Amino acid sequence: MKLIIISDTHIKPGQSLLARLPEDLISILKSSDIIIHAGDFETFGCYNELKNLGKLIAVHGDTDAPEVMRLLLERETIEVESVRIGVIHKGQLASENTDRLRYLAKDMDVDVLVFGHFHHPIVEKTGVLLLSPGSVIVPGIAEPSAIELEIIENNIKGKIIRCKDNVCSYFEYEKP
C-alpha cells in the first residue's frame, strides 16, 4: 500500500489546490492507495479537490472553515496491513520536544502518528513513528514537502518528498 501524506495546504476562498500543486505531486497523489491530510485545508473546495484525486483520510485543523470542521473529526485512526495509523492536526504547541506526541500515539494505540501544524517535515522514530509532512503550499522556513509511505507486511518505508527541485530525502522504519 502506498500512502501520500500532506497537511497545511491553507487554500483560501477562490484559490485552487490543484493549480498550486506541482504536476509531479498531483500524479503521485493520484497513483497512491490512500491520501492522508493532517488538517488545515481552510476551504471546503480544497477538501473536495483532494477527495476527487483518490481515497482520502483526513482530520480538520485549527484554521478550517466551519463546514470542514463539521465534516471531519479532530482525530482519525486507520489500519493498513496491520499497521495502525493515527492522524491529528495539532498534538502539541511546539515541535522541538515530541514527548506529548509520543504519549498521544500511545493513547491512540497507533504505530504511526501523522500530525500537521508545524509546516516543516518531522520524522522521529522513538517507539512509534511520528510524521509531520510539512506544508506543500505554505512551508514557512522549510521547503515545500509531503511524505510517501509504503507499507508491506508490517514494514514501513518512506521518503520525504521535497516539492522544490524534485529533491527527495529518504528514511526507513520497520515496525517493532
Explained architecture:
The structure is a single chain. With 176 residues, this protein is α/β, with parallel strands linked by helices. It has a single domain (2-174), classed as 4-Layer Sandwich (Purple Acid Phosphatase, chain A, domain 2), CATH 3.60.21. Helices cover 21% and strands 35% of the residues. The protein has helices at residues 17-20, 23-31, 44-51, 66-71, 99-108, and strands at residues 2-6, 34-37, 56-58, 75-80, 83-88, 112-114, 121-126, 128-133, 145-152, 155-162, 168-174. The strands form 2 sheets. A 6-stranded mixed β-sheet has the order 3-2-1-9-10-11, with helices on one face. The chain has a 5-stranded mixed β-sheet with strand order 4-5-6-8-7, covered by helices on one side. It is globular and about 40 Å long. The model is unreliable at 167-171 (pLDDT under 50).
So, CATH architecture? 4-Layer Sandwich
* Percent of residues in beta strands: 35-45%
The multimeric state of the shown protein is: single chain
By CATH, the superfamily comes out as Metallo-dependent phosphatases
CATH third-tier fold name: Purple Acid Phosphatase, chain A, domain 2
Number of domains: 1
Low-confidence spans: pLDDT under 50, at least 5 residues?
Answer: 167-171
- The total beta strand count reads 11
Structural class: alpha/beta
